[in-house]
Specification:
By secondary structure, the chain is an all-alpha fold. It is built from 18 helices and 2 strands. The protein is globular. The relative contact order is 0.11.
Length: 470
Amino acid sequence: MAAEFKEVSPNAPLGEKALTWLDNRFPASKLYNEHLGQYYAPKNFNFFYIFGSLALLVLVIQITTGIFLTMHYKPDAALAFGSVEYIMRDVPWGWLIRYMHSTGASAFFIVVYMHMFRGLIYGSYRKPRELIWVFGCAIFLCLMAEAFMGYLLPWGQMSYWGAQVIVNLFAAIPFIGPDLALLIRGDYVVGDATLNRFFAFHVIAVPLVLLGLVAAHIIALHEVGSNNPDGVEIKGPNAPKDAAGHPLDGIPFHPYYTVHDIFAVSMFLMVFTAIIFLAPEFGGYFLEYNNFIPADPLKTPAHIAPVWYFTPYYSMLRAITGEFMYVLMASVVAGAAVMVTKVKMQAIFKAVIAVGAVAVVAAMWGFDAKFWGVVVMGGAVVILFGLPWLDHSEVKSIRYRPSWNKYLYGAFVLNFFILGYLGVQPPSAIGERVSQVGTLFYFGFFLLMPWWSKLGTFGKVPDRIIFAAH
């Protein structure tokens, strides 16, 4: 049944008439109130809660600058590098657009990593926000695909050889690997067909999926409400509300958090602009110096490494060697033993874990280390999807967890940074050992979480949000 049209006085201001006309045909005011004006968020948001809005800002920057870059870029192996140089040197303000896009790629990962870290320490993935976290991890996965495909487009030395190495990794997958690698490349080597495929996915396919996931992420968030540093639910059936039904521990997103986010955006844009104008390459981390050299299939760079935001996973890939496989086998057996003996579950599940561990060890004997390196690299991202079901802690927020949890989370972050640093360094015996230890710690953090997350003495979570205005 169609909704009744709202009437407006003939003497009403023109703006009110225009808004009423629009509301009668499109729920503009309804959407504004539900997702901004009357969306109540917890009143104790802190610094860590700015990164979601910043991620949305960087997404807009990337899409806008990407549109302008595609106007002059040529997805042709013989012309791609020259078209980028043309954008940089001859297109009015082309250098600015290109540097905004390249710096924006790194900025995107910085704010997304910080956004995920906030979710990790405050338990934003816990019930009822599991789907929000899953959508967020899917966004992260799409973002990695988008960045990897865009990385090839400048057709510089590091772009070409980085893509060559990563695409060839798919060939290590048993049975379907060679055909899969050929499908991705579109040819027997990275060339013109690969460039065209990556360009199509980078500018059309992946952004469409990414935008859909972002919309789903926000809709799911506004359906169940935002988490907060105390982990107190402000919209639950038992949460205190005023006469109008609004949560007493919440405040309207607008104007309170819009002002909060505008300030954060201002600070972010100052840093972002400073990097663009003063250090767009950022010491070779945002734009590698080898990428200012045209791609040469006959000349391999001395050291091939991906961009910094991929290096922790690349470091895990390189850590998997033939001898390290024995350590992985022992780790699988030990992990299964801990799960079976320490975690309370039905006997049928313990049997499944035991059989699964035997099957994994047998598979490790059957396939070479290169394949398992690819599995570990992919698994390091995929395991994030299971976080809502791995954490068995009594409380959400780290504020009310045992104090040693803070050191554990700190060690996890430090380990991630070390893996990232080793990923940009040339291979070495010491670096290999450190990467192997770091890889074990990374997976141990998640796989043993059902056990260690229940240990210790937990603080009492307050019934109401603890907040003092400042």
